[in-house]
Amino acid sequence: MKKNKLIELITKIFINHKLNKKHAIICAEALVNAELVDAPSHGLSRLKMYCDRINKKLINPKPKIKIKKISQSITHIDANNSIGFVAADIGIKEAVKNAKKTGFGLVGIKNSGHYGLSGYYAEQAVKKNLTALVFTNAPPAIAPHGALKTLFGTNPICFGTPTSSKIPFILDSSVSMINRGKIRVAARTGKKIPAGVALDKFGNPTTSAKKALEGVQLPIASFRGSGFAWMVDILSGVLTGGNHGGRVKDPFDDFTGPQNIGHLFIVMKSNIFVRNYNQRIKENIKRIKRLPKIKGVKEILYPGQNKYIRYKKNYNNEIRISKDVRKDLELLIS
Predict the structure, then answer these.
(1) pLDDT band at 164, cuts 50/70/90?
(2) Is the pLDDT of residue 334 over 90?
(3) How far is CA 212 from CA 74, 179, 186, 208, 259, in A?
(4) Counting beta carbons within 10 angstroms of the beta carbon of residue 186, is it exposed (0 to 12), middle (13 to 18) or buried (19 or more)?
(5) In contact, 181 and 46? CB cutoff 8 Å
(6) Average pLDDT, rounded, for the chain
(7) Can you tell me the distance from the alpha carbon of 76 to that of 70, in angstroms, rounded to the nearest whole number?
(8) Closest by alpha carbon to 28, among 330, 331, 329, 334?
(9) CA 169 to CA 130: how far, in whole Å?
(10) Nearest to 269 by CA among 107, 128, 69
(11) Angle at 176 between CA 223 and CA 91, to 5 degrees
(12) What's the pLDDT score for residue 60?
């Protein structure tokens, strides 16, 4: 299905679930963007989950979002259990506005939900020639170093900055060896996951997606990855007023209450310290790309280049929809 047709269909589904048209379009565009950058684990495979949570009154389709200005640079947002896409859209726009005005924008959000890809929001700041850091916490998936019980989410770390080209530098990485969405897709389709990314509930290595979901995901870089997960939990949960310390509810399996996820957006003017930032970042990238390459590598790519290539390739093509997702769409539109 073509991009615009799919956005139209998803918008209709969200409107049928009581979102207003503006909010429905925000959600639809974010989900389709995930498909365009080949991140289906954060795209249409999650649509039914959002709708189920709306139906169970765990996502508020008509939120009364409170925006509290703490200073010209700092804003605190209570999302009133809105769908995460809407809360994050307001948050990044507020952070951009603050940064444009004062050079620096800090926005904390509480009472939100899963918002898709962090890089999607960093890109919005970068398009305004700003540099951004984006944090969000997530349901338990990673155990603190030395523990067998999960507590931290896969808690992505995201950084974006303008470059000298039209392709932004976007580093968007979960702190787990593999993101949880991919494991969910594998569990749904009956596929195995790679070795070395998860343990079962008894602490044994597993390639079973279902056992991994019941067990523990492994962090990147051993105890360092666990530390990064903890850092993000503090920044996006403790600091903002959102849930933290393992209290974020799993959106697929836990219908006992809203998620109350926290997000943190840090945005700044790229030339806040030096006037020639664009020249300096161009020089930085050029130096690294000129390094000797190992056998089989044609070009040293910076974070965001591959993603941009995938986006351009997919933009005018049909978006492939799996059988499972097609069933979801048929059920939700009926």
Answers:
(1) confident
(2) no
(3) 39, 12, 10, 6, 21
(4) buried
(5) yes
(6) 97
(7) 7
(8) 329
(9) 11
(10) 128
(11) 110
(12) 98
With tokens 């952070």, the residue in question is: 95
Tokens of 59: 């996502």
C-alpha span between 52 and 252 (Å, rounded): 9
* pLDDT tens readout for residues 114-158: 999 999 999 999 999 999 999 999 999 999 998 889 999 999 999
Cβ partners under 8 Å of residue 115, min gap 6: 30, 84, 85, 87, 88, 121, 136, 261, 263
Residues 6+ apart with CB under 8 A from 286: none
Residue where the block lists tokens 């209450």: 257
What confidence tens digit (pLDDT) does each residue in 253-289 have?
999 999 999 999 999 999 999 999 999 999 999 999 9
Q: Residue for token digits 């597993």? A: 206
Instruction: Report the distance separating Cα 122 and Cα 305, nearest Å.
Output: 15
Q: What is the pTM of this model?
A: 0.95
Q: How far apart are CA 322 and CA 306, in angstroms?
A: 23
Per-residue pLDDT at 75: 98
CB 265 within 8 A of CB 92: yes
**263-273 pLDDT, tens per residue?**
999 999 999 99
Nearest by Cα to 164 from 15, 294, 287: 287
Give whole-number Cα distances, 183 to 124, 196, 282, in Å.
Answer: 28, 13, 37
Taking alpha carbons only, the member of 127, 167, 202 closest to residue 307 is 167
Per the CB < 8 A criterion, the answer to whether 78 and 63 are in contact is no
How does pLDDT run across 307-328, given as a tens digit for each residue? 999 999 999 999 999 999 999 9
Residue ranges of alpha helices (H) inside 190-334 are 209-214, 223-233, 277-289, 305-315, 323-333
Other beta carbons within 10 Å of 155: 27
Residue 64 near residue 47 (C-beta atoms within 8 A): no
